[in-house]
Design goal:
The protein is built from 8 helices and no strands. It is an all-alpha fold. Among the domains are: about 70 residues; about 55 residues, no CATH class.
Amino acid sequence: MVLAMMPLASVAMTAFLVNFRHVFYALSFPLHRIAGWPAKAYATFALSDEAYALATDSAARNWSRARILFMQLTLHLFWAVSVTVGALGGTLIPDSVVGLDFAMTALFLVLGIEAFKARRDIPTPLAAVGCVLLSRILAPSQMLVVSLGLFTVVLITRYLWTRAGRKHGLRGDQTHA
């Protein structure tokens, strides 16, 4: 976008929206196992889709602070090197190659499927689809912003509902009935 000389506000808004998912990642990432503000600050900064997927898997529930940070550092370095190589190598790909524009969509789709498999949480993906469909009807020109806003409200409401249910002695599955 910068190379295409897009307006700075468009670049900033796009970067914000693309990275907005990290707000949700941080809610369930095991930061409670990382002591010390420098380590916790780095773990927050280095939070990537891949680090989230690995650290929130059931096999990672007993990972130590050092293992989580090493995993994040490794993935962070791999990401930085890969982006650099991709940016340089991407200039060699001819314009006639089609389908690469779908790669990020496919990545997020696979990550969403894996997250669903790990948690078996049916209301969250249904709420996401509902928010997208509703925003498509209400504001098709601002679909991304509206659907993210709606989904944020749904997640916050669900969290508060679940927390209130726990205070009243209900199990988590009873709060969604």
